[in-house]
Amino acid sequence: MTVKTDPILRRWTLDEVRDLYQQPMMDLVFRAASVHREHHDPNEVQMSSLLSIKTGGCPEDCGYCPQAARYHTDIEENALMTVEQVKTAAERAKGLGSSRLCMGAAWRNVRDDEEFEQVLDLVRTVNGLDMEVCATLGMLTPNQAERLAAAGLYAYNHNLDSSEEYYKEVISTRGYQDRLDTIGNARKAGLTVCSGGIIGMGESIDDRLKMLLTLASLTPQPESVPINALVAVEGTPLEDQQQVNIFEMVRMIAVTRIVMPNCTVRLSAGRTTMSPEGQALCFLAGAGSIFAGDKLLTTPNPEAFEDLEMFNALGLRPTAPYAKGEKPAITEDPGAPGEKTRIKWSRPGHKIERNEAKRK
Ligand code: SF4
């Protein structure tokens, strides 16, 4: 798979990105829009769909996530979806204009078991529909990444969420380096990388910018960078967080665009509270993708007809699949390793308190 990247990309310092972020909004958006036009078609926005193929019951403690087993949320748990179910959902998403399907499973990490074999089948099936296939399944070993690549996976999503310092405030069951290791494993297997973060979790502006600097320092930089605004879900530790201001989102997208000019910036969670005008400003500042469909894993998202109306009003075109890279061929499955490999807990001694009340 060939991915267009500049051979030499500028290294930014925290002071520089802070200056970028703090400049007057019109100057920042103008600069970001200029970078966007140099590297992308400004009138194309990719529509992607995010499908929760296995919902809830996750042992991790991500403070924003309603799928963590320990939190008291109203999530409906679901076992791993079948090939038929995913195929139907993918065809529907494609029919509504999506060129990419991201499949999410609420797992801490992938295991070399029958469920993973089923996920490989799901990847092959969606690849066969000529959609970009992305997956977000938790931590991966190098062998698992290779098997996903052989099944025709196009991208692996693994978000950094925030700065290394603030990450510990939100998640205690794994470390930042675990995230970077999985991203490295996906990259080594030839997958494109989708990695971004969430704003509005109580972090500082510097935390947001440090996360962007870490992503921008990866070689090569991620091809896809989702920027999410926290959707505060009742029952999670972050349930009382205030909604982020649209201008903070625009600034974040603009800086992402400038420091990672080749990537697709994804205007992700939080769109239900953004007006079409606010979203238009995000597109001007460099956002080149949205998630379509009325659900983002488990949180609400605008209805398809609303997005269609917005696209029509703005004269936007949905991006075709594989516009920025070749379709991966399905090759022979290298198979699971003879000896089982396990990703170790990086935070030994951490106790998982399952949500016993909900279980009962
Ligand atoms: S690992 Fe994923 S599914 Fe599990 S709690 Fe964290 S965000 Fe939710």
From TrEMBL:
Record-annotated Radical SAM core domain positions: 43-262
Pfam families reported in the protein's UniProt record: BATS (PF06968), Radical_SAM (PF04055)
GO molecular function, one term: 2 iron, 2 sulfur cluster binding
Assigned EC number: 2.8.1.6
The protein's required cofactors: [4Fe-4S] cluster; [2Fe-2S] cluster
Reactions it catalyzes: (4R,5S)-dethiobiotin + (sulfur carrier)-SH + 2 reduced [2Fe-2S]-[ferredoxin] + 2 S-adenosyl-L-methionine = (sulfur carrier)-H + biotin + 2 5'-deoxyadenosine + 2 L-methionine + 2 oxidized [2Fe-2S]-[ferredoxin]
Bilayer-crossing regions: none
Pathway this chain belongs to: Cofactor biosynthesis; biotin biosynthesis; biotin from 7,8-diaminononanoate: step 2/2
Chain sites annotated for binding [4Fe-4S] cluster: C58, C62, C65
Keywords assigned: 2Fe-2S, 4Fe-4S, Biotin biosynthesis, Iron, Iron-sulfur, Metal-binding, S-adenosyl-L-methionine, Transferase
The record's free-text note on cofactor binding: Binds 1 [4Fe-4S] cluster. The cluster is coordinated with 3 cysteines and an exchangeable S-adenosyl-L-methionine. Binds 1 [2Fe-2S] cluster. The cluster is coordinated with 3 cysteines and 1 arginine.
Example of a GO biological process term: biotin biosynthetic process
Top-rank EC class of the record's enzyme: transferase
Basic and acidic residues biased stretches: 350-360
Binding-site residues for [2Fe-2S] cluster, renumbered to this chain: C102, C134, C194, R266
Residue span of region Disordered: 320-360
Similarity field: Belongs to the radical SAM superfamily. Biotin synthase family.
Function of the molecule: Catalyzes the conversion of dethiobiotin (DTB) to biotin by the insertion of a sulfur atom into dethiobiotin via a radical-based mechanism.
Self-association state and partner proteins as the record states: Homodimer.
Name of the protein this chain belongs to: Biotin synthase
Higher taxonomy: Bacteria, Pseudomonadati, Bacteroidota, Saprospiria, Saprospirales
